Amino acid sequence: MKQMKAVRVVTAGSKVTTELRDEPLPSPGHHEVLIRVHAVSLNYRDTALLRGEYPAKTKKEGIPVSDGAGEVVAVGPGVTRVKPSDRVAVSCNTTWTGGPYIREYALTSVGFQIDGMLAEYVLFHEDALVHIPDYMSYPEAASLPCAAVTAWTALNKIEPLQPGQTVLIQGTGGVSLFALQFANMFGARVLAITSSDEKAARLKELGADAVVDYTASPEWDREILALTDGKGVDRVLDIAGEKTIRKSAACTKVGGVVVVIGFASGFGGGLPPIDILARSLTLSGSMIGSRLDFEAMLRAMARHKVRPVIDRVYPFAEFREAYGRLETGQQVGKVVIEVANQAAN
């Protein structure tokens, strides 16, 4: 029987860790597709899972990581959407094809409720797959399913982003940089906050109109308001949660939108209702997006030949080092693990 290597999340007492295993190569059933994984990328929630901080129930000893891309090597009976040798990525919620998010989609969250991408081969239903553009490498395509789709849908929450509107992004992680790239595509003005001059320079290179160093300016919301002549931004993508949500609301224009993306600084925040009421804000949470959102985003990226920003690429044997890189918070862009043709020990 053919074997493959796969990483499993193992809990021993209160400690959560990873274990590399040799496992049988799976065979596709009806409407299933076997994919040889070429690359995966990490998100904040992947490190949160290993810290025991992920705020939802997960599969026992599951394969982690939602984001990856690879080559179709075999298809089961009834498959019509893909064929062997196709280059594909996997949507983060395999049953969410289109329409609004509903609770049942959480049951098919890749890398959390069902097995994810950190393995040499993976098996998914054909409806979860998207074709990746020819101009993109596998490491670039692997960076898209969570961060890029989240940025795409967040910018178009409530109503589509319009040319000339202003967007505030936070930090230099995957979601923020994709939002920067997409907002530039829409002709929007992008403001950013970050923690160092080096990161600020990189954000400006990528197209940010102005950057505020929140370590030097703790009241960064006032700086953002000043950059908008006191009016506030049209849209904020709030990444950190607890430590940023109040200031995010404070620098959003009357009638503007705050989209909560993550919880990097905690689950609290204490945003008073009056802060929402007084500015007539729309506050929305992000649950990534559907496969149709993913496909629409890919069409836009292909038209403009947008390339994801990659921080570092690690071989499969160094997957733990890749997790460590993300934990430092020093990355600019996506941390990627190249799986195919890499020895893992």
Automatic annotation (TrEMBL):
Pfam families named in the record: ADH_N (PF08240), ADH_zinc_N (PF00107)
Matches recorded under Gene3D superfamilies: Medium-chain alcohol dehydrogenases, catalytic domain, NAD(P)-binding Rossmann-like Domain
Residue span(s) of domain Enoyl reductase (ER): 13-337
UniProt cross-references to SMART domains, sorted A to Z: PKS_ER
PANTHER family recorded: PTHR45033, ZINC-TYPE ALCOHOL DEHYDROGENASE-LIKE PROTEIN C1773.06C
Protein name: Zinc-type alcohol dehydrogenase-like protein C1773.06c
Gene source species: Aspergillus udagawae
